Amino acid sequence: MALTAAVVLANQPAVASGAPGSSSVTDRINHATEPYDSMQITTAYELSAKTVQSKEEYQGGTFKVLARKDQISRFRCSVCHNDKPVLVQNGALFTHGDIKVNHGLGENQLTCNECHSVGNRDFLVDKEGQKIDFDHSYQLCGKCHFRQKRDWLGGAHGKRETYWAGERVVRNCTSCHNPHSPAFATKMPATYSLPLDE
Amino acid sequence: MDSRKNNEDQIETEDMSDNKSSRRQFLKKMSIAAAAGSASLVVGGCGGSSQTEEMGLKWEEYFKKHYRLMTPEEKDATVERLERLAKLQRGIDVQMSNQEPHENVLYGYAFNISRCKGYMDCVEACVKENNLDRRAKTQYVRIFEMDPGQLDPTAGDGQFHHEVPVENKFYMGVQCFHCENAPCVKACPTKATWREPDGIVVVDYDWCIGCRYCLAACPYWGRRFNWGDPEVPKDEINLNQHYLGNRMRMKGVMEKCTFCVQRTRKGKLPACADACPTGSRVFGNLLDPDSEIRFVLKNKKVFRFKENLGTEPKFWYFMD
After folding, report:
1. C-alpha to C-alpha distance for B121 and B108, rounded to whole angstroms
2. Taking CB atoms and an 8 Å limit, are B1 and A22 in contact across chains?
3. I want to staple B39 with a disulfide (CB 3.0 to 4.6 A). Which of A89, B52, B102, B229 is the partner?
């Protein structure tokens, strides 16, 4: 037993020499240039949430985003937004009186039709008149929030859904942000933390 | 360098096995004989066959090897015993894994201090996922409200009872940083804690003697001690467990964040990263140049806490 301890102790400084310098973990990370095929982790199976293939590229490959249209309670919009007449008593239900827009700085709030297409209510629309599918709203959001979109594509903004491995599935902009009021609300914290030195 | 390190690890473990296993095997044989003896006594006394079984399993557990010296069969056997013991002692159907690390995977973590809003959903998710002691309020992950310019979480406030986020404050999450050059590992006199090949620093709770040297050695307050038997309501116990992860701890042993080894080795995000509603927590494989964590390291302003200590934490803070 004493012998064990001696040998183990003798080995300690050698292990400890992994401190800064030639063997740092950052060096090891920087030398790892071979892409890792995370599909080999077979336990990262498909999600139950509905996803769509993104129209953007990630590190030269494709990825999926969480679908949005299923989450919109009154989609398709053209069921109401059409040429048929509407009874006055249904007006309160049909107008979107519950939606408060708080998107933009100070007085410069966005109006409905800066994002929603007037011609076809089933689509969003950008400043160039390009129709954008609700499932691919990142194409529209990224027109203004291009820095966030760049980070989102790379993975520094937003988050992956459930798995770090397997096929890349990330949350859509509208999975986390309410597009009509995109800033996160204040709320009470879930719990509290004791000081570190206790 | 890596191969050299591995060699040294090998030497150490081989050295351990030479000395201890023969003695342990001897004791084990003794123990089985003793268990048989005591079993017959118990049967004679109160006639509970489940009690006999429990006692036998406990004997076997008591005389098992260090986890790193076990063969795959021995690892399976101990996991099976622990599952059975959980059934006998607590009446719960635990599914315990001893899944080995994946090759070419080194886990890393990044925390966005400009995104975190202090909601603390991560803290709560961690407590539930890892079966943390509710009575002592053990937490692996902690969040502190900080003034601008501060970067020392000991100066932050973790007990804010107001709506968050507050203007002109930022929120900093602290947990085990899974150092490549971990001081806690070096401090342990029984080698009950070590760094796995995928970078996760783990504890063999059955080998820990509770001396708390590691707790004193860690410059990041990453380790927690069980002063009493951890209490978790039976219906809240997470049954998906890992031998080196969230299996039930006992009084007098150390525990710590394991990057949710029971989840991450299955390809899942750690519970804290999964629970975060703000996307402040980025987790992934540091050896994969296409991973999100590598994107953060390459493209964002990052820093590590107390980097000058040379501990090589695999946990980076970053800003938008």
Report:
1. 20
2. yes
3. B52
Q: Quick check: A145 contacting B, CB < 8 Å?
A: no
DSSP B63-128: TPPPGGG--HHHHHHHHHHHHHHHHHHH----EEE-PPPPTT--EEEEEETTT-----HHHHHHHH
> Tens digits of per-residue pLDDT, B7-36?
445 445 544 544 555 666 666 666 666 655
Cα A182 to Cα A110, A175, B269, B275, distances in angstroms? 12, 11, 25, 19
Given CB atoms, is A66 within the 8 Å cutoff of chain B? no
ipTM of the complex: 0.85
Q: How is chain B split into domains, by residue range?
A: 2-92, 94-320
- Residue B221 has its nearest CB partner, among A151, A165, A197, at A197
DSSP summary character for residue A175: H
Q: Is A155 within 8 Å of B291 when comparing Cβ atoms?
A: yes
CATH class of the structural domain B94-320: alpha beta
Tens digits of residue pLDDT in B98-131: 999 999 999 999 999 999 999 999 999 999 999 9
CB-defined contacts A:B, below 8 A = 206
Cβ–Cβ of A196/B159 closer than 8 Å? no
In angstroms, the first-to-last Cα distance of chain B is 34
